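Ticket #4471: structure output looks truncated?

Reporter: J.K.
Steps to reproduce: submitted the chain below (220 residues) through the standard prediction queue, then opened the result file.
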Amino acid sequence: MKRIPEPELMDSVDQVEAYAAADFDEGNQAFADRVCRALDDASPGRLVDLGCGPGDICLRIAAGLPDWHIVGMDAGRNMLDAARRAVRGVPFAERIEFQLARLPDRNLPEADFQAVVSNSLLHHLPEPSALWITVRQVGAPGAYVQVMDLDRPDSEDEARALVDRYAADEPELLREDFFNSLCAAWTVDEVRRQLDDSGLALDVERVSDRHWMVHGRLPE
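Returned output as attached by the reporter:
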């Protein structure tokens, strides 16, 4: 299936509310758990979540890495408002902050983070290089990198089947956003080429029937 790009931002009030209320618990926890396992023996530092959305993964990682400072970045003001509401009253809220940023951004600090993670951002970006440039820019030497996103199906029929399988009970707005995201996603082979073009020696693997994951460390 030929890739069909979708808008960069999911930031209307309706989209933010639907996304924040959706049941991503299993996938988000698995993503956060993998980050925490990778950093379990590392010295505490700073971690950035690029495209943090309503902040759920930031919260999960902060809970699993009690000595780390977590920064969530997103280009959507409404998404960041939802993220800030989500951390109110959380005991470790002082270790989480959210910043408005649209990638690429030359004003972001260089080599500032010991871990760089991102979930479901790449397919929204007009140019995928924006994500990989930012990973290189903000990641410190030896930084852990973990990026996950959707893997584009072979056909629209397969995309619809995935929507029915995993979002059967979700609002129609979210179901349509999921379908559009599947159509806008990059395949594993395409991501490998992006990494080669960006000079990033990171591993990429298919981790489910609808996701791939990039992981590894930046050079020391």
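Triage note (M.O.): checked the attachment and the full token line is present. The radius of gyration is 16 Å.
Status: closed, working as intended.
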